[in-house]
Design brief:
- The complex is a heterodimer.
- Chain A is built from nine helices and 14 strands.
- By secondary structure, chain A is of the alpha/beta class.
- In chain A, the strands form two sheets. In chain A, strands 3-4-5-2-6-1-7-8-9 form a nine-stranded mixed β-sheet, with helices on both faces. Chain A has a five-stranded antiparallel β-sheet with strand order 10-14-11-12-13.
- The two termini of chain A are about 25 Å apart.
- By secondary structure, chain B is α+β, with helices and mostly antiparallel strands.
- Helices cover about 30% and strands about 25% of the residues of chain B.
- Chain B has 15 helices and 19 strands.
- The radius of gyration of chain B is 21 Å and the shape is globular.
- Classes of the chains: A alpha/beta, B alpha+beta.
- Chains A and B meet through helix 3 and helix 5 of A and helix 2, helix 10 and helix 12 of B.
Chain lengths: ~290, ~475
């Protein structure tokens, strides 16, 4: 069974670094990425443009494309999947957009897609200059699975922690990742399951993040695993992989406290956990998973 | 201390946050509402309106109308008048992205009994002829150059190209043509997003509604007659839409420009970055004003073409001409605008840039800017409720001086779109509405759920607040019977 196409939503106020993040992803992420954006020209300058029914598609090389919508979002996504077969779709919202309606659209109206994560890019320097969060900015923070506190190089180191505390007031569950020029480990940004032509190659994680894996040839109890996923510690930013249950194998994607399962073919359970200083949690996480083995 | 504890009651319908509420406020912030509405109002509205009260050039009060709720920068329902000779600013967050989102009302000489048998047919045909939805395209195929002409000439261009009647222009704000719109000030991307959208409703809270005047809903018989509303159970058509992706792009383009120059070039400090602005008297301010006017004209043109399509549909179904069906346009009001107006402040006449975001201009009787036909009775005001509850035709009132002659624009959300989507299911809502005699067509079930009546404030309460505050006077209430939801 073909897994649903993951959609990652990139949101954040005007000028916070959304386009920089997209450039960073394109530069480092292997695989076919379809970017859906409003400001078409920002990324696809001089690209060959194909006019579709619901989308305009610009080729970016390496199978990646940049799309701008002509029709309804749902119809456009279907057209992109049919024409481009991307591994991942990334939707960049305008800085003025409130992400919640789009999140709902993806979850309710685009059954061929899975909402992988909502990433909000927040400009640290802007937060220092404008301590009062605007209405739309607050919604963009509240709706995030991962918060990028970007442009960290533009502020004093002592200013960082108070800003993180402020972000946590609006969103207590999303991990906050400090970045310069949006340089973030794509393993944190993306889940698993979209790779239609083989998995992504191994690479080094950002040094401040740890990761460990769990594998098992035994089946796991579904109820036990669900309880486990609900209680993962907040230091785990991302977890992903395959889980064998009684009768079926599922793809597991966890980000900032939100997780889902969908059917997938795999011979064994293979999970990876990524987070900040999670080494101390490793033994208890592995033990909890062992307890779920049947 | 809760914010509401800082609010001072000035009168039954005026509530004030004093300048001591927040550092930087230049004038007090006032909310026009009944006590019930004030208590229900989202806390963010008070924060937002007090931030507006800190903008350079703001005059007398930063105001919020009774249907206010939080938005980007200004609350929706926010009104602020900037003195352009005192460093007053222009702010896209004070106008809204759907520039000149507005309402238009057209009457017929048909009664409910005559329309009821064909109601479904009418709504279905309207649904087909007036495209709705996020990226909907109009039937009007314009070149980019023609679109530039449209945004500079507004509804006048449409009437000259046979989409409407000359007298439609007389009952549109500024005759549907805002002078000073300059297509050289808009981006190619804005044109991209707009040139095929003339004649489309769009999505969100935009709609086209067939309504009826039920007995007992005429509040002022004499004034109603001035608007041609004289027959029991008379049927009218009201619609709400704006400048679509075009206005949104114009706002986005200039917000980015203003963010770059606001502090570095003009030394303007603001409390909320979403209030990005520039002095009105600056090259950036003038450019945005000229570009924003293109949005105003685009929207007037959009509503003009939609009116034309509505007349075609009625004419086709009833086999009579639109003239014969008495399809007179009553008025067209703009919600999201900034206009240069003369107002008397402390006995002195001043030129103010009045930002109205989700608020309706409402000049009282005798004002020179009111269409000649209505000058003696005051400017017509059209306030749309949710698709379940009803809408109103009002006129501007003399007491409007307290709000720079502005009033409410709708009923105002009480619940976020997402929350509404979680609470109701669109398909079920459609069945419920149909059982109550309201036939609805929509491009999106989830979008329909967003517009459930209970997601909005009580329209009657909002209207009562504007009447008691003396800023507008209700004339007729309309009840929906058919709705095309964007």
């Amino acid at each position: 069974m073909e897994p649903r196409t993951p959609i990652n939503l990139v949101t954040g106020p005007l000028g916070s670094g959304k386009t920089t993040l997209l450039r960073h992803i394109l530069a480092i992420r292997p695989g076919k990425i379809a970017i859906v954006m409003n400001e078409f020209g920002e990324i696809a300058i001089d690209a060959k443009v194909l006019e579709g029914k619901n989308v305009r598609i610009a080729e970016l090389g390496g199978g990646c494309v940049c799309c701008s919508l002509l029709g309804e979002f749902e119809a456009a996504v279907t057209e992109i999947i049919q024409r481009v077969e991307p591994d991942i779709i990334i939707v960049e919202t305008t800085g003025l957009a409130e992400p919640e309606a789009l999140v709902f659209n993806i979850q309710e109206a685009a059954p061929q897609c899975r909402l992988d994560s909502v990433v909000s890019v927040i400009d640290a320097d802007m937060l220092v200059c404008f301590p009062e969060l605007g209405h739309t900015t607050r919604l963009q923070i509240e709706g995030a699975d991962i918060l990028l506190l970007n442009k960290i190089d533009l502020i004093e180191p002592r200013q960082v922690e108070p800003l993180e505390a402020k972000l946590r007031e609006s969103n207590p569950t999303a991990p906050i990742v400090r970045t310069e020029r949006c340089r973030i480990d794509p393993e944190l940004l993306f889940g698993i399951g979209g790779e239609k032509k083989g998995a992504s190659p191994q690479h080094k994680h950002q040094p401040e993040f740890d990761s460990f894996t769990f594998t098992s040839k035994k089946e796991l109890s579904r109820d036990c695993f669900k309880a486990f996923a609900d209680h993962l510690p907040s230091s785990v930013y991302r977890a992903k992989g395959f889980v064998r249950f009684e009768g079926s194998t599922q793809l597991f994607n966890f980000v900032g406290g939100r997780w889902d399962l969908e059917p997938f073919e795999s011979a064994e359970t293979q999970l990876v956990f990524i987070g900040k200083e999670i080494a101390p949690e490793k033994s208890s996480i592995i033990a909890a998973l062992k307890d779920c083995e049947l | 201390m809760a914010i509401i504890d800082n609010v001072r009651k000035i009168s039954d319908t005026i509530w004030e946050l004093p300048t001591t509420f927040k550092a930087g406020m230049r004038v007090p912030a006032r909310v026009i509402a009944t006590e019930k509405l004030v208590r229900e109002m989202d806390e963010a509205v008070y924060q937002q309106i007090s931030n507006v009260a800190a903008l350079p050039g703001v005059t007398r009060y930063a105001l919020c109308m009774p249907d206010g709720h939080s938005g980007y920068g200004f609350p929706i329902g926010g009104v602020a008048a900037m003195d352009i000779h005192e460093g007053g600013v222009i702010s896209p967050g004070g106008i809204g992205f759907d520039i000149n989102c507005g309402m238009r009302l057209v009457i017929t000489n048909l009664t409910l009994d005559e329309v009821q048998p064909s109601l479904k047919e009418i709504v279905d045909l309207l649904f087909q002829r007036v495209p709705a939805g996020v990226g909907s395209h109009g039937f009007l195929k314009l070149s980019r150059q023609e679109f530039r002409d449209v945004v500079e000439q507004g509804a006048r261009w449409c009437v000259e190209h046979d989409f409407g009647w000359e007298e439609d222009l007389e009952v549109t704000e500024e005759n549907g043509y805002i002078a000073g719109a300059d297509a050289a000030k808009i981006s190619e991307r804005a044109i991209d997003r707009g040139y095929n959208q003339i004649g489309t409703l769009g999505s969100g809270n935009h709609y086209l509604e067939i309504q009826v005047v039920r007995s007992g809903d005429v509040r002022d018989k004499e004034l109603a007659a001035r608007f041609g509303i004289t027959i029991p159970n008379q049927v009218v058509v009201m619609f709400h839409c704006g400048s679509r992706g075009f206005g949104h792009q114009v706002a986005t383009d200039y917000l980015q420009i203003f963010l770059k120059v606001m502090e570095s070039k003009y030394g303007i400090k603001i409390l909320d970055r979403e209030l990005a602005c520039a002095p009105f008297e600056s090259s950036e301010g003038h450019d945005y004003f000229a570009a924003m006017k293109c949005g105003l004209n685009m929207s007037f043109a959009n509503r003009q073409v939609i009116l034309h399509r509505i007349r075609e549909v009625f004419s086709e179904i009833f086999g009579r001409s639109a003239e014969d069906l008495g399809m007179q346009m009553i008025y067209d009001v703009a919600h999201n605008t900034a206009k240069l107006e003369k107002h008397t402040i402390d006995g002195k006449e001043k030129t103010l840039l009045v930002h109205r975001k989700g608020a309706t201009r409402a000049f009282g009787p005798g004002h020179e800017e009111v269409a000649a036909r209505y000058r003696d009775i005051g400017q017509p005001v059209i306030i749309g409720g949710s698709m379940e509850t009803g809408s109103y035709l009002l006129t501007g009132a003399p007491g409007g001086a307290a709000t720079f002659f502005s009033t409410a624009h709708g009923s105002g959300r009480t619940m976020s779109r997402t929350k509404a989507r979680k609470q109701w299911h669109g398909k079920q809502l459609q069945r419920d509405l149909e059982a109550r005699g309201i036939y609805v067509r929509s491009t999106s079930w989830a979008g329909l759920a967003e517009e459930a009546g209970a997601a909005y404030k009580d329209i009657d309460e909002v209207i009562e607040a504007t009447e008691r505050a003396g800023i507008s006077k209700p004339i007729v209430r309309f009840t929906p019977i058919g709705n095309v939801k964007g």
